[in-house]
Amino acid sequence: MAATKKPVTESPAEGSPATKAPRKPTKVHGSTETLERLRANVGSLSSMMRSELENTLPWYRRLSADERSALGLVAQNGITAFVSWYEQPSSPSWVLSDVFGTAPTELTRAISLQRALQLIRTVVQVVEDRVPELAAAEEQTALREAVLRYSREVAFAAADVYARAAENRGAWDTRLEALAVDGILRGENTDALQSRISALGWTSHSHITIMVGPAPQEANALFLATLRRAAARFAEDVMVGIQGDKLILVLGNVKDPESAYLRLSDLFAPGPVVYGPMAATLSDATASAKAAFAGISVAKGWSGAPRPVSADDLLPERVMGGDESARRALIVNIYRPLIAASNGLIETLSSYLQGGHSLEAAARELFVHSNTVRYRLRRVCDVTGWDPLIPREAFVLQTAVIVGRLATPSKNYATKPLR
């Protein structure tokens, strides 16, 4: 009798839907006796866990009573949740609610992520040490494996808690930083402003500089973080703000201003970058910011302006743009010192400027030797800090002479130098 042939069934191709069975949650098989022992020993395990934390973690002993209580509650919840998980494992989503509960905020404030992991390791060690008492010999291996898998889930959940907390802190710091920068620009009350920037870790009380320039089109969080790191190489404190299409840098205690401004200007979008005068105090930073914004609004008037350019180097353009602080600076820092110096400095400067920057023409008009004109022009540079022999600086001096002559005698200008 011929053997009956079994029908040949073709195996489905590897990876086809027929070969993919639905994935089921991992089942940890625990006997009723082991589960009962675990439930009965939750209290003793919690007590041992607290004692172990006190003995093995020095930083835990230094915490306040409230902080130790919050962390002890987290650890105790972890042991209780393990018993439920050992009986019927579920998705990792339970970890955040069952173990941490309402503690994440307190947890992240009290200890670092590294210490949180030390806490978890201690709790796991306590349970592992009691495995021989909690399970029969044939179930001890399975119980230890369950503890390891459980500790992995708790560790990942703790990392998630800290990541979320860091994101929240970052978002809050960004909002606080924006408010602080806006407060500087608006001249907010100094005490309130000092409180805000102190919350950001700002420690500088002098040598504050404001840089303003075009903001990149995609000024995302990654760009701002890169900008802060770059600025931190040149200044002790840094704040960044974006207002419309303008990027604002607030720098405290700049170490090498000339190099810092040049290097940081490369991080701005194409276009003029202006930095205000160095502010001696936080209250003076508002004036520095206003000067920088006034400068960037008229920077295109000087086609040969360097990048970056000082707001003080744009005084003529700022005056033409209607900036009263620039007008006052020219009168107080240039025109009045020249008048006070006498010795014919203002007359010599005027003749030199009106005579096409010619020493000989000025000498003929004043009936003096050209060397006398040259000497007086050097004195002008000593008195004002601007050299009339350099065309751009001569333009600044000429603007100062014009606005000084146009100023009404009754106008009350302060005599404190602004440059």
UniProtKB/TrEMBL annotation:
Listed Pfam families: GGDEF_2, HTH_30
Lineage of source species: Bacteria, Bacillati, Actinomycetota, Actinomycetes, Micrococcales
Record-annotated membrane-spanning stretches: none
Domain CdaR GGDEF-like: start-end pairs: 187-294
Domain PucR C-terminal helix-turn-helix: start-end pairs: 345-402
UniProt-annotated stretches for the region Disordered: 1-32
InterPro entries for this protein: CdaR-like_regulators, CdaR_GGDEF, PucR_C-HTH_dom, PucR_C-HTH_sf
The name this protein goes by in its record: PucR C-terminal helix-turn-helix domain-containing protein
Protein family membership: Belongs to the CdaR family.
Organism from which the protein derives: Arthrobacter alpinus
